[in-house]
Amino acid sequence: MPANGNKPNGAPGANGETEGTDPAISARGLVRKFGNFTAVNDVSFSVKRGEIFGFLGPNGSGKTTVIKMLTGLLPLNAGEASVEGLNVRTDAERVRERIGYMSQNFSLYPDLTVTENLTFYGRIYGLDPARLKRRMDEVIQLNGLDPYLNRLAAQLSGGWKQRLALGCAMLHEPKLLFLDEPTAGIDPVARRLLWDLLFDLSGHGITFFVTTHYMDEAERCSHVAYIYFGKLIADGTPNSLRELPDVTPEGTIRVEITTPEVTRALKIARQIPGIRSATIFGQSIHALINDHFDLDDLRLQLQHQGIVVAEIRPLAPSLEDVFVELTYKNQAAGAKEIEANRA
Amino acid sequence: MRDMFRGFGAVFYKETLHVRRDFATLFFSLIIPLLQMLLLGYGIDTNIRQINTVVFNADGRQESRELLDRLKNSDTFHVVRYVSSDQDLNNMIIAGKAHVGIKIPVDYSDRLLHQMSAQVLVLIDGSDSSVAGQAINVTTAIGLDESLRRALPNNEAFAVDMRPKLLFNPDSRSPNFFLPGLTAILLLNVTTFLTAFSIVREKERGTLEQLFVTPVRPMGLLLGKLLPYLGIGFFELCMILTFMRFAFHVPIHGSVFLLAFLSLPYIFVSLSLGILISSKANTQSEAMQLAFLTILPSIFFSGYIFPLETMPKFFYGLSYFVPARYFIDITRGVILRGAGITHLWPDALALFTIGTLLLIIAARRFQNKVIMA
After folding, report:
1. Which of A33, A77, A106, A107 would you mutate first to test chain B, the one with the most B CBs within 10 A?
2. How far apart are CA B129 and CA B311, in angstroms?
3. A82 and A26 Cβ atoms separated by less than 8 Å
4. A181 and A105 within one domain
5. What per-residue confidence (pLDDT) applies to A17?
6. Residue B87, SS3 per DSSP
7. A47 near A115, Cβ under 8 Å?
8. Which of A256, A277, B112, B357 has the fewest CB neighbours in a 10 Å radius?
9. Is A84 inside any structural domain?
10. Is the pLDDT of residue A9 over 50?
11. How far apart are CA B197 and CA B281, in angstroms?
């Protein structure tokens, strides 16, 4: 892989490791093309040490490609990236020594026991026997794997597989862990246990790069980014994203309408002038309305149509709202761009 | 330098565990070749003997019976029935109950007595060319021999006396011909399949993807995966050779150590082929199909069953790309002819070249289609 000669000013980690103030990950202007298709288009972000960074986006939007670029598996077509203070263009080997990676299918060997899986990954990372033993004891205790040491990985339930996979990924004491959809297909209890563990570890200064489809998981992250067809369209703390002007445009507010007849209410609500958009959320409707629209007036209009309204109250946008709004806005912008190119 | 093979020890450790856990696969991959060997060694005889024959002897006198005895004693013909009409003779052949029909005309003895040419009709079922060929050769030879004996004065030697001598396989035993070739096919089978499967399995499980994000280096990964199967392949070879020598009594005229040594580049080719297959196949059944695709040319275009020399130019040219061709040359050379390294080094060199090329292609495909996909 040829090193890019003319690095942009202040290229991160160009001078090797400088622990402490450096971000755990710094990506600037990442581009990756497959033929004519641009899978990752000018993506920049930075992840501080100890953060739980949630990387979200629909399937095929470029999440895995970004992970492959950051771990040095895919060369960058443009841009710079440093991971743990190391330039991924020139130091991919050392990057891989310092990170842990857990893929969505947990990547265990089903015909090997728990102990054997751990031993294998420990040896892959070159732990000497003494350190391997010490780390295995620690990881087994941390993940509660004790009762299953001699069981084949194939016989573990989803939650335990995930804990074993996490154990394998952190044997070599990485300061940064990539978790690709760590909770896909596991039960809610295991999901919560995993997040408790992540918070605990991040409190000890370990950085997590987590991809997920679950919005409630995104809400738990200290920093989230949303990638949509190769472009990063949101980047910040969940609260800062909620306050983005694009999400709740000037002159509008979000309200929650609680009603027993959500389906019928939605149909009617969508026809009321002054309601810009509405969607069902469990036993309620989330709506974006003009801010001069009086809430009592709205209640009257609905009741007039025969809808029982239990409650109407203002609501902060959820992350899902944020991503939906930003996606619409981007689609509109994308369409304009295409028109402009045609003209 | 040590860094280049990083992860080798760990992968080797894991791979041996897989082999031990999946004992059934190992057992069958070792036992089935031996069964194949038993079947081919005992079941197949390329020497054509005892062809079912029907006879219509219209003459019936001593001369005609002497001729029939000579035909029977050649060991080529086995008389299944004597009939008494042309029609029955024909019907027996049409029904497939006999492949050869011999009709001795009613005046056979008379014509011989009067020093005239006596004709014998030999009907041959042409649907199996090797049976037909053998029947033609033997009947013609016996006819010629019979004529010469009658033409020459008593005990006078033939003007030209051909003395054929079969070298290396004096009894023309089929196992001696088949088994050295079979060794090459079986070895290819086992090693290619096992390697391809071991890598494709990791693709299916997603563990390969995981390994790429660890510090393990490609060479460490490949060698760690290949070495256990190289060992199994080598063990398989020893087993086959032992069986061949002691169960089928095929003498090994050359050096066993040379044979073992020269099998290494061949096993190397099979393993590289396995890696190449695994770079293309994403599931085990795909790998199975691709592996069969490589096995077929090894059987048909390697000289294992059909002689290369009789093939059309195109296929003869094709055979240069079939690794089994070179190894069959080596096994037959060492086992039957007692050939040494001075005769066989070009084969070994060819194998080594093919193996290296395959490994380079496989490594490139892996980099482009698997890691960066």
Report:
1. A107
2. 16
3. yes
4. yes
5. 43
6. helix
7. no
8. B357
9. yes
10. no
11. 10
Residue A6 has pLDDT above 70, yes or no: no
Domain of A311, in residue numbers: 248-316
pLDDT of residue B223: 84
Statement: the pTM of the whole predicted model exceeds 0.80: no
Distance CA B218, CA B205 (A): 19
Show the tokens assigned to A69: 């670029």
Angle between helices B8-21 and B218-246 (to 10 degrees): 40
* Residues from chain B contacting residue A66 (CB–CB below 8 Å): none
Asked if residue A82 belongs to a domain, the reply is: yes
Structure tokens at B187: 């070895």
Superfamily for domain range B51-151: abc type-2 transporter like domain (3.40.1710.10)
Average pLDDT on B111-139 reads 89
Kindly give the interhelix angle for B284-300 and B174-205, rounded to the nearest 10 degrees.
Answer: 160
- What does the buried/exposed string (b/e) look like for A180-199 if buried means 16 or more CB atoms within 10 Å of the residue's CB? bbbbbebeeebbebbbeebe
On whether any CB of chain A is under 8 Å from the CB of B6, the answer is: yes
Which tops the pLDDT comparison, A258 or A107?
Answer: A258
Least confident of A40-49, A106-115, B170-179: B170-179
Q: Judge whether B339 and B254 are in contact, CB under 8 Å.
A: yes
Helices B23-43, B8-21: axis angle to 10 degrees equals: 70
The domain locations on chain B are 2-44+172-371, 51-151
Task: Name the nearest CA neighbour of B341 among B285, B259, B251.
Answer: B259
Chain A CB within 8 Å of residue B311 CB: no
DSSP state of A184: T
Lowest mean pLDDT across A27-31, A41-45, A184-188, A284-288:
A184-188
The answer, yes or no, to whether residue B155 has pLDDT greater than 90, is: no
- Per-residue DSSP letter, A316: P
Shortest CA distance to A83 belongs to which of A12, A8, A170, A6? A12
Both structure tokens of A238: 């969940």
Q: Which of A107, A119, A120 sits opposite B206 (nearest CB)?
A: A107
**Which of A333, A252, A265 has the alpha carbon at shortest distance from A302?**
A265
In-domain check, residue A177:
yes
